Amino acid sequence: MSAEIICVGTELLLGDIVNTNVQFLAKELANLGIPHYYQTVVGDNPTRLREVITIASKRASILLFTGGLGPTPDDLTTETLAQCFNSPLIEKAEIIEDIQDKFKARGRQMNENNRKQALIPKGATILPNPTGTAPGIIWEPVPNVTIMTFPGVPSEMKQMWSETAVPHLKSQGWGKEIIFSRMLRFRGIGESSLATKVNRFFDLTNPTVAPYASLGEVRLRISAKTASETEAIKLIEPVAQDIIKIAGEDYFGQDDDTLTKVVGTLLRQKQQTVSVAESCTGGGLGAMFTEIAGSSDYFWGGVIAYDNRVKISLLEVSAEALDHHGAVSDIVAQQMALGIKKRLGTDWGVSITGIAGPGGGTDIKPVGLVYIGIADPEGNVESVECTFGDRSRDIIRYLSSCTALDQLRRKL
Amino acid sequence: MSAEIICVGTELLLGDIVNTNVQFLAKELANLGIPHYYQTVVGDNPTRLREVITIASKRASILLFTGGLGPTPDDLTTETLAQCFNSPLIEKAEIIEDIQDKFKARGRQMNENNRKQALIPKGATILPNPTGTAPGIIWEPVPNVTIMTFPGVPSEMKQMWSETAVPHLKSQGWGKEIIFSRMLRFRGIGESSLATKVNRFFDLTNPTVAPYASLGEVRLRISAKTASETEAIKLIEPVAQDIIKIAGEDYFGQDDDTLTKVVGTLLRQKQQTVSVAESCTGGGLGAMFTEIAGSSDYFWGGVIAYDNRVKISLLEVSAEALDHHGAVSDIVAQQMALGIKKRLGTDWGVSITGIAGPGGGTDIKPVGLVYIGIADPEGNVESVECTFGDRSRDIIRYLSSCTALDQLRRKL
Questions:
Q1: Residues B286, A282: C-beta atoms closer than 8 Å
Q2: Quick one: B230 and B286 in the same domain?
Q3: Which of A213, B184, B316, B328 is the most buried (most CB within 10 A)?
Q4: Per-residue pLDDT, A277
């Protein structure tokens, strides 16, 4: 018993997009303990798709398809599957209704093209798509071959996978031995330095510990292979605690604890409020704070002071400081933080001013130089200088917002 | 005559890495005008790899392999190819020397394991690897089947491809015909509605027209297969112009024209400035404006008015409007837009206020209801109501910022 992933879409053959769907499904199959040995990409061509289906259905018992469920004529996955297994297509009224509702919710009229999305092979069941108009199917056209189809849109595919496909596979007996992982998240320390600190854990076999570096963050994944989540956690917990002790303040959370969440939780616990004054990030830090529903409990808002006139008029930054030290300086970062705290009357004020590049750098103030100011409830203000080096504008802006959050976290 | 890409590596089946190699090769094949219809990923397993090679060598005349050229026992691509076509492996002295030199340059001793990297099938020629220790091969084991192998390391693979593989393919007569594409980008119209409008173009054969939907945007790719870019553009241009005429204002740009870029260019042309007042997007719109280096020419900044107190104190939104109509209303959106325009003294003021969810929705004001206000240089203000439906918070916030940019674009 093994699975096989088949991705349908000429855009993949043209190299227009990276195939992240196949990586997601590959990981998920591994977590469920379902072996899979082949991945195939084929274009929107019925003859070739049929050939791929024929080959795969001989090799594997679970066939996962992504793509080709859209409303346009080149979306052919469902009808080609039906042809392959000589099954007629049936129009499902409930799908039509669902599509109509979604169009209505978006203030649009359903289009005739969408009707074809309501056609599924006789005997197949609907794999519901909560957000998009393209539902998938779960179908066993012949004994020991289960077919599941998903749209190519990653967000829709992932939701359909976790909400419907995974429970179905588990009901079939898969996932008995599960791989359960906990991701520990760190900031302010490099991958190699952390690796050296926790070196000895890398030799463990169950759970295993592996490092992952991502932008502005280092992670350690602790994975255990057991029959149940409870058993896995028993194995993982002591290791996690040891590592967290070793890492100290650089550890900020686990799994889906983002910096934003962690900072939000701390602010809510202390019943304190925060506002932001942003220059080079242009609103990115505020956008991060407000990613969290309910962030209005502690985040009041801020000022995007991209132009120096705004720094002066709304944040009371002194023209003198701007002239003598420049907009990218400790003193201006501090004045911005104090200015927004005072202007909005929040407990904390956080500011960012820097050179995101690619232009605007000098020998003394190179691209990637960023100052972060933090004004605390007592009215004290501190600033830190960050040098993110000669990286891309996006990355420097992103790291600036993350570092501002992390500085606030450490003070909280 | 077509090509096929085969990526070898268990790490791809486990989902440990995204397969960017296949996207690179797919793009390159398209540029050379070499059709390719299948991509296959298989693990480090000789039996399955052999099966894949057998299938592919019947379908395609050029087989490109990535991965499995390393020194470790699980690197099996070369020897499996040799077995498939019953060819002995020959040790190449020049490869041994090359590997020894590279180790010396890194101050290390060549490992015995590396000897296996010097074995290539009889009759194959070396595909040199300038930076790594794993060379590839170019081999025609049977008439009309050319095999090329590359290591999995992207940087090495790319260099070997462009320095040796491309010239070889061109010497075989490929690259005479290229595929050149132009992507037209649209907003404010759904994929199916646009498809209906431009239906007739989908039947064209050269250039071809194909639709792509992505979040908040629809794209049409026009691809021409010709001897030169100039000829391709000759074929593409008239079709593009027809489609642009049909789409009208919903067309906003092509290829890498983002909404942000297009709006920035228009503002710069008119030498006008803009500021933003953001509620539910919390700074996301400002962050979008400032993605562009040099946006300070036209973007001055704004106010993140997440809390109503900020709407009143900094944007002069009337408490009366907030009480009677609520923060999410046409009138408040308009007052915010006028307020920020006046406060910062910019030509345009753009505001966003809405319910990003998941909570906070009511029957009258559901999640996804967003008002966008635009104050123009004459001091007139208008607002539009958007219903983005019951989607995720991130998506609603993202679509809100995009729509605000698009509304400004239409007025510019």
A1: yes
A2: no
A3: B184
A4: 97
Closest Cα partner for A221 from A177, A257, A176, A180? A180
Asked whether residue B87 falls in the same domain as residue B145, the answer is yes
Flag if B307 and A295 touch (Cβ within 8 Å). Answer: no
**Which of B30, B39, B195 is closest, CB to CB, to A41?**
B39
Q: Do B19 and A14 touch (CB under 8 A)?
A: no
Q: Do residues A168 and A186 both lie within one domain?
A: no
Contact B242, B184 (CB under 8 A): no
| Cβ(A180)–Cβ(A239) below 8 Å | no
Tell me whether residues A41 and B36 touch, CB distance under 8 A: no
Which of A8, A27, A28, A39 would you mutate first to test chain B, the one with the most B CBs within 10 A? Answer: A39
* Beta-carbon separation of A105 and B368 below 8 A: yes
Last residue of a domain, one of B113, B145, B172: B172
Q: Do B195 and A303 touch (CB under 8 A)?
A: no
Q: Are residues B235 and B287 in the same domain?
A: no
- What CATH number did the domain enclosing A195 receive? 3.30.70.2860
Burial of A275 (0-12, 13-18, 19+ CB in 10 A): buried
Residue A194 confidence (pLDDT) = 85
Contacts of A26 (CB under 8 A, 6+ apart): A5, A36, A39, B12, B13, B14, B15
How far is the alpha carbon of B95 from chain A, nearest alpha carbon, in Å?
Answer: 32
Could you report the per-residue pLDDT of B7-54, keeping only the tens digit for each? 998 888 888 788 999 999 999 998 888 999 999 999 989 999 999 999
In whole angstroms, give the CA distance from residue A50 to residue B389.
37
Q: Do B286 and A304 touch (CB under 8 A)?
A: yes
Q: Considering A254, A282, A312, which residue would you say is the last residue of a domain? A: A254
Residues of B in contact with A29 (CB under 8 A): 15
Q: Which residue has the tokens 């379908």?
A: B59
Residue of A166, A136, A140, A164 lying closest to A152 (CA atoms): A136
- CATH of residue A292's domain is 3.90.950.20
- B248-302 pLDDT, tens digit per residue, is 999 999 998 999 999 999 999 999 999 999 999 999 999 999 999 999 999 999 9
The interface pTM score, or ipTM, of the predicted complex is 0.74
Count up the domains in chain A and report the number: 3
Residues B91 and B212 in one domain: no
Q: Given an 8 Å threshold on Cβ–Cβ distance, is A113 in contact with B192?
A: yes
Residue B301 has its nearest CB partner, among A55, A74, A303, at A303
Question: Is there a contact between B36 and B73 (Cβ–Cβ < 8 Å)?
Answer: no
- Categorise residue A3: left if φ over 0, alpha if ψ from -120 to 50, beta otherwise: beta
Q: CATH number for the domain including A20?
A: 3.40.980.10
pLDDT digits (tens, 9 = 90+) for A322-367: 999 999 999 999 999 999 999 999 999 999 999 998 988 898 999 9
To probe the interface with A, which of B40, B44, B307 has the most A CB atoms within 10 Å?
Answer: B307
**A302/B280 CB distance under 8 A:** no
Q: Given an 8 Å threshold on Cβ–Cβ distance, is A313 in contact with B55?
A: no
Write down the pTM of the prediction.
0.75
Cβ atoms A198, A243 nearer than 8 A:
yes
Do B364 and B330 have their domain in common? Answer: yes
Q: Measured between beta carbons, which residues in chain B are less than 8 angstroms from residue A40?
A: 38-41
- Minimal Cα distance from A11: which residue of B? B212
What residues does A137 pair with on adjacent strands?
A126
Domain holding B201, by residue range, is: 178-254
One domain, residues B154 and B280:
no
Q: Which of B28, B37, B360 sits opposite A43 (nearest CB)?
A: B37
Same domain, B289 and B386: yes
